[in-house]
Amino acid sequence: MTAAILCMIRRDLLLAVRRSSDVLTVLLFFVIVVSLFPLGIGPDPALLRTIAPGAIWVAALLASMLALQRIFAADHADGTLEQMLLGTAPLGMTVAAKVLAHWLVTGLPLVLVAPVLALQFDFPQELLGVLTVSLALGTPVLGLIGAIGAALTLGLRGGGALLSLLVLPLYIPVLIIGAGAAEAAAAGLGGHAQLLLLGAFLVAAAAFAPWAAAVALRISME
Amino acid sequence: MSDGFNWFKYSSPQTFFPLAGKLAAVFAVAAAIACAAGIYIGFFVAPTDAQQGEAYRIIFIHVPAAWMSMFLYVVMAFWAGLGLAFNTRLSGMMASALAPTGALFTFLALWTGSLWGKPTWGTWWVWDARLTSELILLFLYFGFMALQAAIDDKRRADKAGAVLALVGVVNVPIIYFSVKWWNTLHQGASINFTKAPSMAATMFTGMVVMALGFWFYSIAAALLRARCIMLEREHATEWAVEYVKGLVRNDGVSPGLKGV
Q1: Distance between CA atoms of residues A111 and A109, nearest Å
Q2: ipTM of this complex
Q3: Is B31 left (phi over 0), alpha (psi -120 to 50) or beta?
Q4: Residues 6+ apart with CB under 8 A from A12
Q5: CA nearest B142 in A: which residue?
Q6: Which of A184, A43, A41, A33 is CA-nearest to residue A113?
Q7: Any bridge partners for residue A56, and if so which?
Q8: How far apart (Å, rounded) are the C-alpha atoms in residues A171 and B227?
Q9: Dihedral sign for Cα atoms in the order A153, A155, A156, A158
Q10: Which residues, 6 or more positions from B214, have their beta carbon under 8 angstroms from its beta carbon?
Q11: What are the CA-CA distances from residue A189 to residues A41, A129, A185 (Å)?
Q12: Is B143 close to A169, i.e. CB distance below 8 A?
């Protein structure tokens, strides 16, 4: 089983490397959306410092939502997904492996770029760590929840808009707690409570979401 | 299984359809009576609040609507889950029939809440934990309906909606406990199972009677909607054709149904 999972991760990563422009698009989208906030709100440093965590989190959320359809769409189109459903590896594990590979490709770059973007907002350097850790814990949760939505809307017309309607309400708690971590740290409260909550979200989502997504995939493919 | 009550008798649309019609009529009458009584108690019997004046009277709509918005989601998820687990047709139809009523009550709770918030809190809306989670609930209802509307294959729509509804159930305890977990603007519950309600007895009675009225209304509305869904989905079966023919025969002037 482990071999099948490692093989799946390796395959998805290889596919992403071969088509690296898809991956770069998500990252560029993230950078551009974050840059829109100072342009729209005005360059007052005090204001920007306050909104930095929220703006970066909202942009990360939109970017990861934009990438969601990639998890299953290509495999659905060329029939690979059917073979995965028929395969001997438990479907939940396969989905978990695909989500992990997806996060490595689309989520991790956002986490790594976020501190640089935060500096554009004049965000205090000593708090960059909290912001980065909150994103590192939160973006995999977004991918895991999003996989359920992506599986449900597989092959539907107007899938993209529908997917955002399904997934965004479920993202809201992650956004509130995630952005709250850096805000609490900025207010001198540390933000550990929020980071622990995000960790709990991650554990719960990793345990349940792949199986829910597997059920959704079987419904969509029958 | 020759003797005793057959629990599965009403699990097929053909037998449930007439029963739903009768039940809907009964509950519609009960809802009208309970709502009229509740409004009478709320407006004429219950005393004026010492702090909030007359503005508090919206409680008789707001609190029952908020209760129903959460309760209906759980009921919807229950039917959806039952349909997913046992592959029964009627469960999925009930879940789809409940969703619009639930969304209606969620919207009503948010709307009356903001009408209440303006005179008492001085603002239409705050980003308070309970208001936000109730708003999420509204989005979940919309997502459920949008997903079902986007899928042409009704069986797949039922199952996909069921997965979404079950995932969204996580939100209901968050709304319910939000005023306990986060100390924000929305007040805590005035009614508790463990101690006497912190309000006048007539206010409490009015609220419970209104809640019963909303509950009966929800049952009646959901059953009527379920009847429509049953007719739509079973339009090829003999009993559905017979029923529609009967409709046309009874009032000759329904040109919309002539072609059936």
Answers
A1: 5
A2: 0.84
A3: alpha
A4: A97, A98, A101, A102, A105
A5: A165
A6: A33
A7: none
A8: 35
A9: positive
A10: B31, B35, B64, B65, B67, B68, B105
A11: 27, 15, 5
A12: yes
Taking residues A42-64, what's their average pLDDT?
90
Q: Bridge partners of B53?
A: B49
Asked if residue A133 has pLDDT above 90, the reply is yes
pLDDT digits (tens, 9 = 90+) for B133-161: 889 899 999 999 999 999 888 888 999 99
Contact predicate A23/A109, CB 8 Å: yes
**Mean predicted confidence (pLDDT) in A31-42:** 91
Asked if the C-beta of B184 comes within 8 angstroms of chain A's C-beta atoms, the answer is no
Average pLDDT in chain B = 84
CB contact under 8 A, A215 and B163: yes
pLDDT band at A33 (very low <50, low <70, confident <90, very high): very high
Does A206 or B118 have the greater pLDDT score? A206
Give the residues across from B49 on adjacent strands.
Answer: B53
- Report which residue type is found at A145: I
Q: Which residue has the higher pLDDT, B188 or B143?
A: B143
B174 touches chain A (CB under 8 A): yes
- Residue B181 has a pLDDT of 66
- A158 contacts chain B (CB < 8 A): yes
In B166-183, which positions are buried (b, 16+ CB within 10 angstroms) versus exposed (e)?
bbbbebbebbbebbeeee
Residue A42 structure tokens: 């005005």
Cβ-Cβ pairs closer than 8 A, A with B, add up to 53
Question: How confident is the model over B242-251, as pLDDT tens digits?
Answer: 888 888 877 6
Residue-wise DSSP of A25-55: HHHHHHHHHHHHHHHHH---HHHHHHHHHHH
CA–chain centroid gap for B234, Å, is: 24
Which are the contacts of B149, defined by CB distance < 8 A and separation ≥ 6?
Answer: none
Site of tokens 């707690």: A177
Q: Comparing A14-23, B7-16, B136-145, which segment has the lowest mean pLDDT?
A: B7-16
Interface check for A215 against chain B (CB to CB < 8 A): the answer is yes
Query: Count of H helices and E strands in chain B?
Result: 8, 0
